[in-house]
Amino acid sequence: MRDRSAGHRALSHAALSWLAYDWERVGDPTTRPRWPFKVYLPRSTEEVVRAVREAAAAGERLIVRGSGHSSNGLVTAEGGAVLLTELMDRVVEIDERAGTCTMQAGVRLGDVDRRLAERGLGLKVVGDHGDLTAGGFASVGGISPASHRFGLFADTVSELEYVDFAGEVHRCGRTDPAFRRVLAGLGRHGVITELTVEVLRIDKRRTLLRNDRIVTGKLPEFLAKAAEMLVSPGQAWYARAFWIDLGKAGCGQISRYHPAAERADRVVRSRLARGCQRAIGAATAFLPRSAAAVAKYAGVAAMVLPPVYTTADRVERFADELADATVGAPTRMFITIAPAEAAAEVARGMLDACAAARRAGAIGPLTLYFKPIRSAYLSGDRDGVRHAEITVTATVDPARMTERVLSTVVERIDDVALAHGAFRYLHTRTGSDPHRRRRLDPNARYGDEESGPEARWLA
Description:
Structural class: alpha+beta
Number of domains: 2
Number of strands: 18
Oligomer: single chain
Number of helices: 15
Helix content: 25-40%
Low-confidence stretches: 1-6, 449-459
Radius of gyration: 21 Å
CATH architecture of the largest domain: 3-Layer(aba) Sandwich
CATH class of the largest domain: Alpha Beta
C-alpha cells in the first residue's frame, strides 16, 4: 500500500499500527491501541461477501474501516475482525453523458476528483481531506462548503451496492426503502462496496472565484452575520464562516464565493495566494516539529483572512492544506448539525460547554467553523429546510483533558443539540447512552437500528 497521508504528518494510513487507532489519537497521543485479531483486505464485492459470511459463521462482529477518520469507536476492534476497504480503490466508470461516476468504496475522493479533472469534471461534494474514502464519507453523510447547493455527499449518490451482514449483495437506488438507511449509516447496516455519484462539469483548478468576505473581531457580530449566511447563502457557489477564539480575543470571517471573470491581475493574486498556502502547508509537513507547530498556527490565522481571489479546488481543500491537525498541540473536534435558524444559539451552547474545561486548562485556543447545508437526507425531503454544520476544534492538554472532563464536555454538547433539535455528526465523540445517541442520529428516521442482525454499533 502506498502512503497517501502527506497531509497528516503524524499518521500513516498505510502503516499496520494505524489499524489499532482512529482519529481519537489526534486528541490524545497516549490513547491505548485496540489491536484487531483479524483483518480482511477485499478487492471486490465477491471477496467482501466471503469476509462477511466467514465472520458471521464465526459469530464475530465485523468492523468496516476506510481511512480511520472516526473518533467515536466505530472503526477499531480490540481482538475483533476489521474489514479494510483500502484495496477497493477503483474508479469503475465515468459516464459523462449521465453526469455520474461509479467507484469502489475504498477509493480516495481526492484521487477520484483528480481522475474527473482530466475530463473537465468534478465531484459536487468533497471533504477537506483528500484521503477520505468514498464509502467512509458516504457513511457519515459528508459535508463541504458546497453543501448548501448539493446537500451531503450522500445526497449526490444515485445508486448503491452493499453487502448486508448475512452476506447478501444488494443494489438499490433512491426509491428503495433501504437506500438512505444504508447511506450515512456508519456501517451498521452492511458494507458499502460501490457507489454511483453525480458529478458536474467544472475545471476546479481554473475556475476563478471571488470571496465576498466579512471580517470582524466581535463574536456577537460574527455569530449574527454567520447566521444570516447559514439561513440565506444566496447564489454563492461555496459558503462558510470561521472564528478563532483565543479566550479574551478572537477574530472571524464569513465567506461567500461567487464566480469571477478571469483577469490577469485576479489570476496573479490567486496564484500568489495558492503559493502562500502551499508554503504554509509545506512548512507544516516538513519543518522540525517545533517550527512546524508555529507554521500550523500561521495557517489557522490565515483561515481568518482567506484570499479575495482563489480557485474552486483551493476553497474545497482550504482548511486541510493550511493546518495539519496532527502537528503541534493535540486537538479535539466536536460537530453538530443544527437547524440553520438555531445555529448561532447552538454554537454559543457548544462554546459554553467547553468553558469549564477551558478554565481548568484542559482546553486552550479553539476555532468555530460553520457550513450551510440544504439536504434532502437531513430534512426528510421537506422543502425549504436548511441546516448548518457547526464544528468546534479545541486545542487540548491531554494531561488535563481526562476522560471524565472530556465526557462532561461531550454530554453538555449533546444536551445543547437535543435542546435545539440538532443532530450530532456521529463519527466525532458523543455520549454513550444509546437512547440519547439515537435522538442525535439523523439515520434513525430511516430504520430501526436497535433490532435485527444489523444492530452492530449500539450493541
